[in-house]
Here is the input.
Amino acid sequence: MSISRRTFLGGGLAAAAVAMTGCSSGPKNTAAANRAVALPTYTKYAGVTPDLPGDGVVLDAFLKYPAKPIRAITEVPGDGQPITFLTNIPGAIPPAADRNQFWQALNDRLGSELQISMASNDEYKDKFATRIAGGDLPDILNIPVDTAQIPGLVKAKCLDLTEHLSGDAIKKYPFLASIPTDFWKGCVFNGAIYGVPVPRGMSRTSLALYREDLLAAKGIKNPAPKSFQEFFDLATELTAAKQNKWAWTRVPLSTIRQMLGVPNVWKQEGGKFSSSYEHEANQEALEAARKMVAAGVINPDAFNDKASARKQWFNGGTAAFDYDSFVAWNQYYADNIAGDSFAVNALDVPGFDGGEGSPWMGGALNNVTAFSKDSKHSADTLLKIANWMAAPFGTEEYLFRKYGVAGRHYTLQGTDPVPSKTGVIETGIGLQYISDSPLALYWAGKPDVPRKQHAAQQKVAKRPVRDASYGLYSDTQSKKQAQLAKTMTDLESQIVQGKKPVADWARGVADWKSAGGDKIRTELEQALADTAGK
Amino acid sequence: MIRVLKGVVLLVFCAVVIIPFVAVISTSIAPNKQITESGGLVLLPESVDFAAYRSLFAGGVVTQALGVSVFVTVVGTLLSLTVSCLLAYALARPSFVAGRPILLVVLFSMLFSPGIIPTYLVVKGAGLLDSIWSLIVPTMISAFNVIVLRAFFMNLPGELTESARMDGASELKIFGYVVLPLSKAVLSVVGLFYAVSYWNAFFSALLYLNDSRLWPLQLVLRTYVINDTQLGSAELGTELLPPQASIQMAILVVSIVPILLIYPFLQRHFAKGVLTGAVKG
Here is the structure.
């Protein structure tokens, strides 16, 4: 009775069927119904003052941790009964609660025992689908944004939170109210608010990151290529293949597309949607990427290795440029082996032939957190827990939630918490997926890092290109997106490596359209028309 | 000349097999700096650093998982062997009533496996969720192994069991004192098959066990391999674990060594056991 991944397909369909059972009555998931929902009122928490303030798009930056973190929540949020939570975890498995002092301290603070069922990122979807189809729902559920048919799922299985969160009602949960309104759009289905967002947006925005120290050693200070040609010349200058050094860890196709004004996933103009794949500049972008590969400025293993290898090349100095997010920027400092001289910065996106490019904004949400209809806890209790998890940087709750207990999990250097190994291992239990405050730019002991990050964000925040499909539901997209995107990424990879001609791209796009692309477009246009009340 | 050529070819083959092992072990003990600078794999470590192993075994998670895996493998293999032998022996007896329909049921489960959700519902209905037995009971009988055992038992000379019966031995005695001692080869092979599948299993644990204290080694180790980056920590700007390459290689060593240790003891039975089951039947 062995279980293979393939047999899982049947299970996934069953899960969808179970999830859809609740679709027969009540408000439909039309954009018009969703638009009628009053989104939560945004009230930014004023208890902590950032050193470099953000604006809802640009993140707040802190040069050091506040000396006296405020205890922002006095009430114990739990109700004394155990609360179950199903989530993925981004790191290695942490010690279980009985051997994990952080987890034990957390339970004391919450006033309820938090029982967490975990799976690694890769396996989470399997576990999620099986538990739902098996009717085995936890109280708190982490729903990845690319889950198929979320409206049917939440309607059948999850609590409608509208009355608790809509408009000013959210003020009862001040830290949830401190999450900008735009992030809540992704939690509205079937004309109701079904979840709490785990916001990302700008922190997931990816740019061309570079090793400032390596470039400085070559006499290049403040590199700011003004066109693709200058960008290419810079890459050539930093490549010395004979010494095992290449400019790039991977083909910067996304950066090139941003230089050419290719849309971020979907673009909307006058009610008509067009996909990034269809943009006419793709041919030119692919040609430019091929030119970079042919010139040998990309690490030759770029097409075979995983992200961890890419990060090693960047850290080890084998490559000077990488295309990644602000989160990865921090990680480079954590992995740093080059010592104090190590420095990272980001390039702005120039226009292909000069002028300004169009940087893409990162995905708004990591996941939506919903609460089970069958939960024995009140919606108020579960929202209080989520509120506690969203206490922002600078509060005492945040310090505990992210760093643990002083002495065991971190030590203070000045006012900055520096985590110990035990701290990293024990705190990695996935709390950030119950709810989270918008991330703050900060690096313990290195105020230069948040300063540079803040400056980079300010540059791109003036002209961010968002995915126009965010907040609009397309059934076909929810079912087929992963498969369609993979086909296009594979084709892209073949073309830039020179294994297929650029002309094949047009055929690929035609296939993509007939395989579901056109249907997604129609559904998105309909959703937008509903929203506009047409 | 031909002899030299043969030697060279053999050497090349040996190198092809051995070098990856050397790379795995070397990378697992190489210092971080060397791994990062070499771009991922190291053949000759500059110095020995057990940080990856310390990291793996820190917090007791891996040690605990190792205990679970050993328990599941040993107990599971013993139980599987017991029930499989009993079933196969019964099915091998020509006089066994309903032997054919039962054999068909066994064969059916080999050809058509149930989907994940039905299996999950059965495990849930049996009250096995969050129990270590959920790693053993649902996979206790492998139809393939039963067929191999049955084929072997069918080829034992009927005169042996008949003479034992004439001496007054019961069926169970015949099975225990005559049949089993003659079946060491096939038992060791089938036992190895069971042991390896219990040792490698992780998916049932992922689905059935919410309590991570009951997770077997393979599932725990997968969280290190699959989770390519330590994003959670990076968002905080905290210190991270040693580079993935050394951790991943240490994981390979930890997960393959125990099962490798068993092989030499079973090797002499292996070819004979597999052939007996495969050819005759």
Notes: Chain B is about 75% helix and 0% strand. Chain B touches chain A through 61 residues (CB under 8 Å).
